[in-house]
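Page header: ASSEMBLY MODEL / two components / 667 residues total.
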Amino acid sequence: MKSKILLLLLIPVILLASCAKKAEPKAMAKAFTVGLVTDVGGIDDKSFNQGTWEGVKAFADEMKLSVDKDVKYLQSTAEADYLPNLSAFADQKMDLIVAPGFLFNNAMLEAATKYPNQKFLIIDSVVADKDGKNIANVANAVFAANEGSFLAGAAAGLKAKADGKKVVGYVGGMEFPLIQSFQAGFEQGVAAVFPECKILVDYVGNFTDAGKGQALAAKQFGAGAYVIFQVAGGAGNGVIKEAKERQAKADVRWAIGVDKDQYNDGVFADGKSAVLTSMMKRVDNAAKDVATLAMNGKFPGGTVTVYSLANNGVGLPATNPNLSDDIVKQVQGYADQIKAGTLKVAEMPTKK
Amino acid sequence: MNILYTMIPMALAYATPLIIAALGGLFSERAGIVNIALEGIMMIGGFTAAAVTVVLEPLTPMAGYYGLLAGVAAGTVYSLLHAFASVNLKADQVISGTAVNILAGGLTIYLAQIIFHQQRTRSFQTGLGKFSFPVLGDIPVIGPLLFKDVYPTFWIAIILIALTWFVIFKTPFGLRLRACGEHPQAAASMGISVMAYRYYGVMISGAFAGLAGGALVLTQDIQYSAASIHGAGFIALACLIFGKWNPFGVMGAGIFFGFSQALSLYAKDIPFLANIPLEFFYLLPYALTVIALIVFSGKAVGPRAAGEIYDAGKR
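Prediction written out in full:
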């Protein structure tokens, strides 16, 4: 009986293992090749994987490389696929192997050690060995999320002030430094334009549970929040859903998107959107930039490149239909100050 | 007090799919078939409901309700797998249920890939919206808690509780169904087709679990994805045991678990709980599930023949 259950549980494991995509090794001529390994979110996650892939494709377009032949991706269906997928690209001697997100830290450390002659790029994280030293053949692209979040905070604060509201909210995924830097920037941005405004803060505890994200949004909206900045991936979609549901019933509340321009995710009726604006991490720019550097022999291996407001690594979308021109102008003013270095944005929230 | 006004509706929203799925499990187990396939059937129901809603949404404002109906139909059909394996083939019901669960996870994502070209359904715009009862919503205290801005699925669940109680305990059908779960050989000796009743039991549980999956996805998510159901089917099973295979017990257990989930969101705002690390509250619903089962399992007695393979010759 017990062994039967065990066997039954083993079947899918064996099946999965045998179906795992193994890209065939093929000798490439001279074309520069880029391979992207996605995390379990998949290539169409409307977020990091998709954004990075768009950057890689933009790079291919510019360099006249063929998509699927010179630049391609492998999807991971489980965390256990990360290392095999990275290794598959390394075995093919791809010129640059890209992976988005901190989930890849361990797998990439292992792959980079095993294939010291291959070039790797990790997006939005830093790969380091046991002693905390960077790896010579890994480029690290990180984002000054606090700077972009400051702008989101300023936009939220100005919007609340303009409409006579006194509370805004922040819903994060998990409480660790990377996500806390969003909170820090947001809080500072709100405080800069509207010091009396109250800021509610909640963390979902994961990046997947949209139901819980929505419940937390309902809670914050219930406590009077007018705008909520969500930094919670899939769970954050629940925040947008709650804002949409309320707007559809003429209870005007706003959500602020993250990572990508989420305006379209907030559309509820007549083409109106409940997404006020979005704090974008331009993973596409970062991927394209590092790929171009690598192609020109200037691969930034072993270093950490910060993509900030100054080099278009973060920022609000070019168009914000839900923000008045006046707010856009004021936010732009803060952006210029941050770019010029006259305004410093904190990286950790001040403890209360 | 203000906290309670937002917390109670939230707890009820969380409880709704749990209660509906557990009622489904009740029909199945009362007929003598252990149904740990609830989770998988919920996935199928949730996926179908989400897919149908997405497709119909541009055409009709009732899309969410058609989605629910489609979820019910899909759940019923899918549950036939479990019924066939455990009734006709006399497979071990736990193993059959496990297989059905594993299959559902893969099948839904596979279908999503074919239909929507991604590993989840497209996201729907509203799903099932909340609504308010015109007059009842204005009653002080109870109005805002039960009748204002509630999901229609909550009231569907309430109706199903009463209906289940009536069918199981007050109709000949219910009596026969229970007989098949207590002592199938005795039932058979009175001319009842045990196989047919076990099929009814599993199919009704499939319909309920399909509805529950649809209710969960359409009210608590924006699309169906692999993580949408996240163990609700198993918590529903715990509700069934905790509620002692009785519809009203199931309701109480469901609300209890719903409350523990809502509490995990609000703990931070309740003064004397605020100093406990957040992670503790994340695990609270699951810890309470385990504790409740340990405390009550000793006295919980289910249908006697549940899980037993029907052997007409056994005396």
